[in-house]
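Reviewer 2 asked us to include a model.

Predict the structure of this chain.
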Amino acid sequence: MRFSVRMLLMGVMVFFAAGMVFAAGEPEVEEGITEPVTVIVPAGPGGGTDMVARIVGENIENYLGHEWRITNMPGGASVPAQEEVQRSRADGHTLLLFHTMMHTTEAMGVSPFTWEDYEPIARLATSPGILTVHSDSPWQTVHELQQYGKDNPGELTYAMESGGTSHFLGVGIGMALGIDWTLAHIGGGADRVSALHGRHVDAAYEVVGTMNPHIEAGDFRGLAVLAEERTDFAPDIPTMKEEGFDIVFSMPYYVFAPKGTPQAAIDMLVDAVEQTVADPGVQRRLAGIDHEPGFLAGEDLRAALRDEVIFINEWAAEIED
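Predicted model (structure tokens):
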């Protein structure tokens, strides 16, 4: 009898030990944010996406209780950065900070990922963009550029990054102006600015924060802003709508978490982002790079993402044709 009791006790101990080993090998996901958050940015340091990430990241600890650690992963049409986030644990401690290029690369078949592969957390900010030419160019207005394009089909060159937002906007602007211009694959924003500086292209689109310093220095001329209304960041430049062209676009910056992230972690992140973006100091810093706070979350955010995909797909059809 003693032997049987001893064996029973040993069996119980082995059972619990095995359970502890299994638990150690498969740790449960914490439901809140309990440590610093890694934010993957599919762009290099110094650009608009990186600056928005760092402005928010340097202040969010005041509201989240943990810092954001920014990791830049440029290149590969954002696929390596998105794969990194997709491989991470769905616990809210690894995030993706990105913009409309998520939709454009998927529409072009370059990336397998869509926003629906993630848990959307929030939109942080927006930045209107400007259709810009070199200051030495003969075109003083968008109408003069349009007329030249109509008189000389295919001669105007527009700087873009294949599959990127600038590519789709090149198609959209060309459609709005009713011109056939040449879309020149130049590369990222810095490369496109350099190409316009060197007069290797005739026109380029970039966010206000990127183009304004060159406009103010007298190197570039802003023809039209693609915002719904004139922006305080470039008050003397008319909108495309004012000029009679129905095209509106402002670059949005979003934060996404891996699919399956617990709701408690999502709620903590949403609340912290909302408070951070509403912080007057953060708003001043965003304004300093010509970006506007643009917090969205929940169903409003999902609706905005769905609407973006619709018009991106419309332009994608034009590219394929």
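The mean pLDDT is 88. The two ends are 85 Å apart (CA to CA). We have added this to the supplementary material.
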